[in-house]
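Good morning,

Attaching, inline, the backbone tokens for the sequence recovery test we're adding to the shared suite. The designed sequence is right after.
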């Protein structure tokens, strides 16, 4: 099944639009799955979309978004629990879906390690348990803390609940003084069925599947509820250690078992991809009889020294991968199509389905992506599903894997009701009535109402107070909705939050006297708001909710500019150039189209140069500086500049900042590093380290790594094959050195 064009056929504009669509879907899916235990799309759907996102990023690396789903783990921990900062970050896993990808995984590791094809490289293979990730910390043999994964860096403290799980030892003999065990809390099929029977008999809520039941049972505020739930735990990894467990993954798992942990008996050693695939097939055959849910098989390099050499990407280890099982299918009736409006104004269609059991889970909703998907075509006009459009009343085939709500894969025209009308996608926003506009190259139709659209205003405020943004205690999503609709004490813009107490004092009806509030709760809210009047620069940038500017881009911008005013000045200075960038992109598209029609090669450079010819030099310099920041490309820069140049939004930002003290960025102490604070560009072929290793080393020494050469570049490290970057560096007088000179420069640092 395919619902979009092949990545190899996408133009740059189409790729950019597709990355925006995928980010919106996948980031929402992370919050639903990890934060709410209520996934809205299937595992298979999520994996396919994330894989597509990665494929587009690989082909168009310069288009990678600041809020790319590739850089995200889990979701922010719930406000109901105390926070736990993981001593070592809890990572996620990359996915594979067929034997070819497993062979590519093996080849990739060998290349990174410099191992020939015939050199031995052993792996462990183990079932991928479909449950809730948990970290257990033992000190001097005693369980002292248990935490969920959360967003990988910060989890939820569930220590009291974890003590109620029989599979989790309370004390250990002959264990390292510090031992963090990672594993999965799950519920067996039999226990799940028995629990749902008891829940139904008591008139209480039943669970959709074992994973949700396990997650909901562990994340209880009352540990006695957890005690009554039949939870189990498999240990399969570790975090912080005061002493090593073993030299290999397999022996370390055996050590965990000897300490009293339950480990999966299907874990085995495999010699290469062929063995891995054979073990995968064996586990897949046993899947239905295991008695608990799994959604694939995890492969890990067995040698722990090799694991350390391979290291990590931003969110995943290089030395492990999850080989996922295929999706499951079912048929049901589509009863309605509803339109939701998101924070960016995107109109997102949702299918309401007659409830159907898919793989043992009852589901009633499915995503419909956008109007093209409903109409049976891709964003480029090519047919999908054979061109069959989706209509209310249709019998649709839905698919899912594991524990989630499905997506429509196909439909049966023979069962379409007589008179079923084609769905007309709204051209106006269902929330505010403003025009819903679809820009060229964008697969999504968006409300043009901006601040007057309640859906956008509320969602932007929710984003502003979210944990990764201002994180104001006592002012969550529900309170935002309440204050936004309040006529006497409204919060319509972020600045309104910080004038709330002053406005409350001027009101005859005080917040403390309202239903659900009191003197203490009102005072606590005002105090919590005051605590956030001083905010780090990166948090402020992220909290503004600017399209394409996620946490990573916010940190990159903050680290580069250091001060709020420096950022504002740079963005304002680059504004004329940002407009030219949009015109240049349009000129490039037009030139390509004309060239294709005339059967000639597109003359892109003249088309772009004509647009930039009259641009002010200062604006050009500011623009080049902005897009030259590592991790910030033209897409993010245009979005940032556009947001700051909108009068209403700029006024809202200025009013907010007037209420705040924005903290400057404090540079890390990198000692006597010879490259601290310098901007470095790598080009050509590096022969003694990979590009990824070189970048990581430079950043660890306090350098800024850029992808392009400019007047602000301090050092160009040029390997064999260096081309235009070396030429430009010479023209600009940038210091250029080869790899040996670079290693000598940083060797003593």
């Amino acid at each position: 099944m395919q619902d979009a064009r092949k990545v190899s056929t996408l133009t740059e504009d189409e790729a950019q639009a597709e990355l925006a669509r995928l980010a919106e879907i996948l980031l929402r899916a992370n919050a639903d799955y990890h934060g709410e235990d209520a996934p809205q799309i299937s595992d298979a759907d999520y994996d396919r979309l994330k894989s597509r996102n990665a494929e587009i990023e690989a082909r168009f690396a310069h288009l990678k978004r600041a809020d790319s789903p590739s850089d995200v783990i889990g979701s922010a921990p719930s406000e109901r629990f105390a926070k736990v900062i993981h001593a070592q970050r809890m990572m996620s896993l990359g996915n594979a879906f067929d034997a070819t990808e497993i062979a590519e995984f093996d080849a990739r590791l060998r290349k990174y390690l410099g191992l020939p094809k015939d050199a031995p490289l052993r792996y462990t293979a183990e079932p991928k348990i479909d449950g809730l990730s948990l970290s257990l910390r033992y000190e001097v043999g005693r369980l002292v803390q248990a935490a969920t994964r959360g967003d990988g860096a910060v989890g939820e403290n569930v220590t009291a609940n974890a003590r109620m799980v029989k599979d989790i030892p309370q004390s250990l003999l002959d264990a390292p003084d510090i031992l963090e065990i990672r594993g999965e809390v799950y519920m067996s099929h039999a226990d799940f069925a028995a629990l749902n029977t008891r829940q139904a008999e008591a008139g209480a809520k039943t669970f959709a599947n074992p994973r949700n039941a396990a997650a909901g049972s562990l994340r209880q505020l009352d540990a006695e509820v957890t005690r009554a739930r039949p939870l189990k735990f498999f240990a399969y990894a570790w975090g912080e250690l005061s002493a090593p467990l073993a030299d290999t993954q397999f022996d370390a798992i055996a050590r965990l078992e000897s300490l009293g942990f339950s480990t999966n008996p299907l874990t085995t050693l495999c010699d290469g991809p062929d063995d891995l695939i054979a073990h995968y097939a064996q586990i897949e055959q046993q899947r239905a009889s295991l008695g608990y849910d799994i959604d694939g098989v995890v492969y890990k390099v067995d040698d722990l020294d090799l694991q350390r050499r391979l290291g990590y990407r931003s969110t995943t280890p290089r030395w492990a991968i999850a080989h996922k099982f295929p999706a499951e299918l079912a048929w049901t009736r589509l009863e309605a199509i509803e339109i939701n409006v998101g924070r960016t104004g995107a109109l997102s269609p949702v299918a309401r389905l007659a409830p159907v059991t898919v793989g043992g889970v009852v589901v009633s909703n499915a995503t419909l992506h956008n109007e093209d998907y409903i109409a049976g075509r891709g964003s480029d006009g090519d047919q999908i599903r054979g061109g069959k459009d989706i209509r209310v009343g249709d019998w649709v085939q839905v698919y899912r894997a594991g524990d989630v709500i499905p997506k429509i894969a196909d439909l049966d025209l023979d069962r379409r009701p007589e008179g079923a009308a084609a769905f007309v996608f709204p051209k106006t926003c269902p929330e505010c009535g403003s025009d819903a506009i679809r820009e060229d190259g964008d697969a999504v139709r968006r409300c043009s109402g901006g601040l007057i659209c309640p859906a956008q205003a509320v969602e932007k405020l929710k984003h502003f107070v979210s944990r990764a943004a201002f994180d104001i205690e006592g002012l969550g999503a529900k309170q935002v909705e309440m204050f936004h609709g309040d006529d006497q004490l409204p919060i319509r813009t972020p600045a309104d939050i910080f004038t709330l107490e002053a406005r409350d004092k001027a009101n005859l009806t005080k917040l403390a006297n309202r239903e659900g509030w009191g003197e203490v709760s009102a005072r606590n809210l005002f105090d919590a708001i005051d605590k956030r009047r001083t905010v780090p620069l990166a948090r402020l940038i992220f909290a503004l909710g600017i399209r394409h500017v996620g946490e990573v881009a916010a940190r990159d911008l903050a680290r580069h500019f250091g001060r709020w005013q420096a950022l504002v000045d740079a963005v304002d200075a680059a504004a004329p150039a940002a407009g030219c960038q949009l015109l240049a992109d349009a000129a490039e598209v037009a030139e390509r189209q004309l060239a294709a029609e005339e059967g000639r090669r597109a003359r892109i450079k003249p088309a772009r140069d004509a647009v930039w010819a009259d641009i002010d030099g200062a604006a050009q310099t500011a623009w080049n500086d902005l897009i030259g920041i590592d991790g910030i490309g033209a897409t993010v820069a245009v979005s940032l500049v556009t947001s700051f140049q909108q009068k209403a939004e700029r006024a809202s930002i200025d009013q907010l900042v007037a209420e705040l003290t924005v903290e400057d960025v404090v540079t890390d102490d990198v000692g006597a590093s010879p490259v601290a604070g310098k901007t470095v560009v790598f080009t050509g072929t590096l022969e003694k380290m990979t590009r990824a290793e070189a970048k990581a080393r430079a950043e660890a020494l306090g350098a800024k790594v850029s992808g392009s050469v400019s007047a602000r570049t301090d050092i160009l490290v040029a390997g064999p094959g260096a081309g235009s970057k070396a030429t430009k560096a010479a023209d600009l007088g940038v210091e250029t050195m080869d790899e040996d000179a670079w290693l000598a420069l940083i060797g003593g640092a």
